[in-house]
């Protein structure tokens, strides 16, 4: 297993005795790899040739002063935290050091050996938290900038306080534009009213002590920048503080216009089929290959059956025995052909059907195979018309 690298600390100090004491302290308390620079030029050289997790600087050092060196360190692309460790307990210098970005200030007195480790621990913990937060933000930014769904946050006045870059792909608005436009203008009036009603309901649920991790999903119609409208699906929940108090609304929105169109087209197609099936002269039906009905048109009622009753029957139960035998033999023959070719014409033949009351009638039956996407037969589609 790879060992963790020791903490690397640069000590900029020209007092040999204090340098020795600090080095021992840092090595014992932190297992640190300590590099010592006794003047500004050697400190600059160390900083240019190596990377450090922490730097301690004395105020007065040969070749310059600690504030100048602090300024140079803070100008680095990724500056390490800096602690002033100085014999000059001057409030003016301390204030100036903190203003310039120093992470800590320790005076060389009798308390230094106790204060320095405490200061270093506090700074390292803060630095680890800062890096973890930056990494978390980096991952979130990478996710938000590259996902197709839009992530957003609303305050309780329904102002958008954050929206991810993908809002532009969905709505045409840039994130800056989307956060400045009132929510009511981003949606059709009906959808805005539905969204507000849902949120009011959720506020009531919140007062009732509902599950804090609950989520709601709603379909809404929004306005695009180019004037067109778009259907979206939004899933949202409350953002909460450490005490569980709701602070804002977090949502994820995706474009479902294509899905909505497919469903609408399907509904329209089903409605057209329903009208045709209800008015076609004859009995329209489908079966699986075991000849059990999977669909019957309402005109089956002319045979005395309800649609629900017919769906519990098989083709054999509505044919006379002789007709069922003839139909089965023909089906077996046609199925053998259908398995060998993707093309097979509908077959027309006369059969005798039985009504619910037991009476029979002759019908002209036209039937063909239903096929899956691989052109394999999986059922029959047929229509039976009574003949005189």
Walk me through the structure.
- By secondary structure, this protein is α+β, with helices and mostly antiparallel strands.
- It folds into three domains: 8-143, Response regulator (Rossmann fold); 147-256, PAS domain (Beta-Lactamase, 2-Layer Sandwich); 280-386, 2-Layer Sandwich (Beta-Lactamase).
- The chain has helices at 16-30, 40-49, 66-74, 91-99, 112-146, 167-171, 175-180, 183-186, 189-207, 257-279, 307-310, 315-318, 321-340, and strands spanning 8-12, 33-37, 54-57, 60-61, 64-65, 82-86, 104-107, 150-154, 160-163, 216-223, 229-240, 246-255, 283-288, 293-296, 347-354, 360-371, 377-386.
- The strands form four sheets. Strands 2-1-3-6-7 form a five-stranded parallel sheet, sandwiched between helices. It has a five-stranded antiparallel sheet with strand order 9-8-12-11-10, sandwiched between helices.
- Helix 4 links the parallel strand 6 and strand 7.
- The chain starts with 7 loop residues before the first strand and ends with a strand.
